[in-house]
Write a structure and sequence with these properties.
- This protein has 702 residues and is of the alpha+beta class.
- Among the domains are: 179 residues, Catalase core domain (Catalase HpII,  Chain A, domain 1), CATH 2.40.180.10; 120 residues, Catalase, four-helical domain (Hemocyanin, N-terminal domain, Up-down Bundle); 147 residues, Rossmann fold.
- Helix content is 26%, strand content 16%.
- Strands 1, 2, 3, 4, 5, 6, 7, 8, 11 and 12 form a ten-stranded antiparallel β-sheet that branches. Strands 15-16-14-13-17-18-19 form a seven-stranded mixed β-sheet, with helices on both faces. Strands 9-10 form a two-stranded antiparallel sheet.
- The longest helix is centred in the middle third of the chain and has 17 residues.
- 44% of the residues are buried.
- The structure holds CIS-heme D hydroxychlorin gamma-spirolactone.
- CIS-heme D hydroxychlorin gamma-spirolactone binds next to strand 2, strand 3, strand 4 and helix 9.
- The site of CIS-heme D hydroxychlorin gamma-spirolactone (HDD) has 26 residues, from strand 2, strand 3, strand 4 and helix 9.
- Its EC number is 1.11.1.6.
- Its cofactor is heme.
Length: 702
């Protein structure tokens, strides 16, 4: 009965676009809605219930009666509502969307959802952090998961990716070890969702193959502004095969249309307290408002040579990237996220990804990390989802016809017919028959396999530093500063001096200047190292560049007060709203501001607003004489976090009250708001932050 109700937003929906326009493009769960029918409250087996608030008792003051079937059913079901959280990537959120192929991959794969031009495939995407528990904060420093289930008409294909292109370990047999080290300490279960502790740094300083991933984690990529502003990487090399059986080796990339942007470190920490659901809220608010996030899917294509290497890079080593300058990322389709889940448990918690969910034309390689993943994802669902029939859960169901000979088991919901669930048989009339390649059967490319049984890595896996050095050298100076601060902070939170020293030795083998500066921050001598020579940067890895990005989904806080110039706010909205920007008015008290026939709804007061909600803050004309400590903190934080600041008319006085230099970079002053002013603000937002301000802030701090 309630299934047709609109979801109730927990915060005011951004008013940028009419939510009614956000038409869902896909609906994979529609049939299941029918399971809740009828107008009356019932038990799970359909008995109508007159009362669910009073247990059956021996008199109003008497004990509950054993026979109260409704009490027992209700409490028993509640007692079992939770399922085990994921052993990693427990904290996350997911949304529906659609993938539209450009058809450009037709020359390298026969996977129909990639090869056919303009083909639309429904998807479900789950974003996550790796280390924290299910209720942990979104904005911690961590790798982010970016897992996509494509419901193709040849079966489900899962691209279980991260927002970093490399991994900590080269062989999946070490996965339990790296996770034991990175998660909380087992004696007290602290710290939650952090890498700034002894066991993490103990592990990575002893397993130097982790160095490249550690560098990504300590970079701004470890603290994204939004799920919408993250890249995604399939990490491993995959093999694509065309209709003739010709293969190439590829790496998958998701490129966000909104660009790659991050928070700054202090901001992440404040956000974790103020709004632990920050990324989840940002994503769902944007989708509710019709501001659909988009990514392009791209592939780097390398020849499938016998040594599975390209330009000296071993393609089976998941700690290595192929610089885009050597193999450009070729766009093959676009992902658009269009619909929030109706039910978090049924969809986000119960979705089960698996690296072995492949379709004809996409194959795995011998990357030893990938090989272990092929086992783990299937296996983990058995305890997490309680048995082998999790593929029957609505969110996991294939959109292609399913006709298997798998039978029975816990939570079986199919009433299979026939007496011969095996092949071949001579008894069934309508059972499945094997499918050859001519009807879409998955036939593995017949690659020769040989080798001695050994527990060993190829020699080429031994280089642990050159690509970390490449990554560091590719970053902009501001990103390098952030990384030095991150290393200094994280190692500064370790107790064991020997761990700090050992990690400094690792840094010395990557970059001397970086090592010396981190060592100085820790008050330790910088060890001698052998950093790689002649490092060739890959400029595309830097996220702070001259490029101006779309500003869809950005939020501008406007400080106002009774008597403020509401026409200026209206003008700002007139220019920014069509670009997908949301304005939120902040005023001393709630309600609304009115004047000259205009009305502005106050969405936040000085008590409820925090700077981290906004990508920029503008002080309206008429708000210049406000005196409020919380407001001063909001402005100071926005300034410290390099956000564009606007001061209109007397708004400049408020900047001075808050101790902010009105002449600092990225502070836009004007007598009134006009198109040009709003345009300048949009341009600053498009560059994400006013990084020119950061060196000045550092001088003040020292
Ligand atoms: Fe994993 C979950 C990504 C290595 C074992 N992994 C999981 C998720 C993502 C990744 C995004 C969350 C899926 C979801 O939203 O449900 N994992 C990666 C990437 C890796 C990687 C990009 C390296 C390139 N993982 C990895 C290894 C192993 C696992 C080497 C084990 C040998 N991963 C798991 C798991 C999880 C998982 C235990 C936990 C929940 C789940 O699978 O369904 O099987």
């Amino acid at each position: 009965m309630a299934s047709s109700r609109k979801p109730e937003p927990t915060v005011p929906t951004p008013a940028a676009l009419d939510p009614a326009e956000s038409t869902p493009l896909t609906s994979s769960l529609a049939p299941e809605r029918g399971l809740q029918t009828g107008d009356y409250l019932t038990t799970a087996h359909g008995l109508r219930l007159p009362d669910t608030d009073h247990s059956l008792k021996a008199g109003p003051r008497g004990p509950a009666l054993m026979e109260d079937f409704h009490l027992r059913e209700k409490i028993t079901h509640f007692d079992h509502e939770r399922i085990p959280e994921r052993v990693v990537h427990a904290r996350g959120t997911g949304v529906h969307g659609v993938f539209r192929s450009y058809g450009t991959a037709a020359s390298v794969t026969r996977a129909r959802f990639l090869a056919e031009k303009d083909k639309e495939t429904p998807v479900f995407v789950r974003f996550s952090t790796v280390l924290g528990s299910r209720g942990s904060a979104d904005t911690v420093r961590d790798t982010r998961g970016f897992a996509t289930k494509f419901y193709t008409d040849e079966g489900n294909f899962d691209l279980v990716a991260n927002n970093m292109p490399v991994f900590f370990i080269q062989d999946g047999i070490k996965f339990p070890d790296v996770i034991h080290a990175a998660k909380w300490h087992p004696d007290r279960e602290i710290p939650q969702a952090q890498t700034a502790h002894d066991t993490f740094w103990d592990f990575v300083s002893l397993h130097t193959e982790a160095t490249h991933h550690v560098f990504w984690a300590m970079s701004d990529r470890g603290i994204p502004r939004s799920y919408r502003t993250m890249e995604g990487f399939g990490v491993h090399t995959f093999r694509l095969v065309d209709a003739e059986g010709t293969s190439v080796l590829v790496k998958f990339h998701w490129k966000p249309v909104a660009g790659v942007h991050s928070q700054v470190w202090e901001e992440t920490q404040i956000t974790a307290g103020v709004d632990p659901d920050f990324h989840r809220r940002d994503l769902t608010d944007c989708i509710d408002a019709g501001l659909f996030p988009e990514w392009e899917l791209g592939i780097q294509v390398m020849p499938d040579t016998p040594d599975e290497s390209f330009e000296g890079i071993d393609l089976l080593d998941p700690t290595k990237i192929v610089p885009e300058e050597l193999a450009p990322v070729q766009p093959i389709g676009k992902l658009t996220l269009t619909r929030n889940p109706d039910n978090f448990h049924a969809e986000v918690e119960q979705i089960a990804f698996h690296m072995g969910n492949l379709v004809p034309g996409i194959e795995v390689t011998n990357d030893p990390l990938l090989q272990a993943r092929l086992f783990s994802y299937l296996d983990t669902q058995l305890s997490r989802l309680g048995g082998p029939n999790f593929n029957q859960l609505p969110i996991n169901r294939s959109h292609a016809p399913v006709n298997d000979n798998l039978r029975d088991g816990m939570h079986q919901s199919v009433v299979h017919r026939g007496i011969a669930p095996y092949l071949p048989n001579s008894l069934s009339q309508d059972g499945p028959v094997p499918a050859g390649p001519e009807v879409g059967g998955y036939v593995h490319l017949p690659k020769p396999v040989q080798g001695d049984k050994v527990r060993a890595n190829p020699v080429s896996f031994a280089d642990h530093y050159s690509q970390a050095a490449l990554f560091y050298a590719s970053l902009s100076p501001i990103e390098q500063e952030h990384m030095i601060e991150a290393f200094t902070f994280e190692l500064g939170r370790c107790y064991e001096q020997k761990i700090r020293q050992r990690q400094l030795q690792v840094l010395a083998n990557v970059n001397t200047d970086l090592c010396e500066r981190v060592a100085a921050g820790l008050g330790l001598p910088a060890p001698e190292g052998t950093p790689p020579l002649n490092v060739v940067p890959s400029p595309v890895l830097a996220q702070v560049t001259d490029r101006v990005w779309p500003i869809t989904g950005r939020v501008v806080g406007v400080v106002a007060a009774p008597g403020a110039d509401l026409s200026g706010i209206a003008k700002l909205r007139e220019v920014l709203k069509p670009q997908g920007v949301v304005l939120r008015v902040i005023a001393p008290i709630g309600g609304q501001l009115a004047g000259d026939g205009a009305v502005e709804i106050v969405e936040r007061t000085f008590q409820t607003a925090r700077s981290v909600e906004y990508d920029a803050v503008v002080i309206a004309d008429g708000a210049g004489d406000l005196l409020d400590l919380q407001l001063n903190i909001l402005l100071q934080e926005a300034f410290r976090h390099a956000k564009p600041i606007g001061a209109v008319g007397d708004g400049e006085r408020l900047l001075l009250t808050a101790g902010i230099d009105p002449a600092a970079p990225g502070v836009l002053r004007a007598k009134s708001v006009d198109d040009a002013y709003a345009g300048q603000l949009a341009a600053l937002l498009g560059k994400h932050r006013v990084w020119e301000r950061m060196p000045m802030l550092r001088l003040v701090a020292s």
